[in-house]
């Protein structure tokens, strides 16, 4: 096959304990999947069907590190999330079989230009400029499910400069991972390489040039991102 322009590199995430990498096909993000976060965003936390938005695969920043501060925003927010990496695809996946499709888990940041998202919401426009910008999805190395199992409980938190900003527990997810996979697979065929960010706990807020963000999930891993001054 001859490409008309240079083929872009494949976005990929390191796998813990291996020299292999996980190729990223699509990034699915679940909105408002913790009740306290739904409340802080001004929404009813009652258990309604999940909704999804997407980021481009090349928004992934494997392993975090030092990043330039995003352009065109004066209100950049952090959202720490459990990353679910799909290793085997399927459509209409039964909830009881959903975890069989998971390759592994990581710690992710759904970085959000909140000011641009807020404008989009007010005008009833799509969220892409607030959510799907360059380097908006730092992800830690993936921990294979074969090694750590399938975490359904455990602390999830984010610190800036050593100070806790977000704190919760995976058992507070409104839609657990098997439910999310089963529901999403009713609308699209999931494929190996898809990743799902399964929502963020309360405490989302701004970060600034010079800040170091440290995200953690018990039993899964850690992720650090520093925004250049």
TrEMBL record:
Native species: Pigmentiphaga soli
Alphabetical list of Pfam families matching this protein: FAA_hydrolase (PF01557)
Residue ranges occupied by any Fumarylacetoacetase-like C-terminal domain in the UniProt entry: 27-225
One example GO MF annotation: hydrolase activity
Protein name from the UniProt record: Fumarylacetoacetate hydrolase family protein
Alphabetic keyword roster: Hydrolase, Metal-binding
UniProt-listed PANTHER family: ACYLPYRUVASE, FLUTATHIONE S-TRANSFERASE
């Amino acid at each position: 096959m001859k490409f008309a322009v240079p083929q872009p590199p494949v976005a990929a995430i390191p796998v813990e304990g291996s020299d292999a990498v996980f190729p990223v096909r699509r990034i699915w993000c679940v909105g408002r999947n913790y009740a306290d976060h739904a409340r802080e965003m001004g929404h009813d936390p009652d258990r309604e069907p999940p909704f999804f938005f997407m980021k481009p695969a090349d928004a992934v920043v494997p392993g975090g590190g030092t990043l330039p501060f995003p352009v065109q925003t004066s209100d950049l927010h952090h959202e720490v999330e459990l990353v679910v990496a799909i290793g085997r695809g399927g459509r209409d996946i039964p909830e009881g079989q959903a975890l069989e499709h998971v390759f592994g888990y990581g710690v992710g940041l759904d970085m959000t230009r909140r000011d641009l998202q807020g404008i989009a919401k007010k005008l009833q426009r799509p969220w892409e400029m607030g959510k799907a910008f360059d380097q908006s999805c730092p992800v830690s190395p993936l921990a294979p499910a074969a090694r750590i199992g399938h975490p359904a409980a455990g602390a999830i938190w984010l610190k800036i400069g050593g100070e806790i900003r977000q704190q919760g527990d995976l058992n507070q997810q409104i839609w657990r991972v098997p439910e999310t996979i089963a529901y999403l697979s009713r609308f699209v065929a999931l494929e190996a390489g898809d990743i799902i960010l399964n929502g963020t706990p309360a405490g989302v807020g701004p970060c600034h040039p010079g800040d170091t963000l440290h995200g953690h999930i018990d039993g899964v891993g850690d992720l650090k991102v520093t925004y250049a001054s």
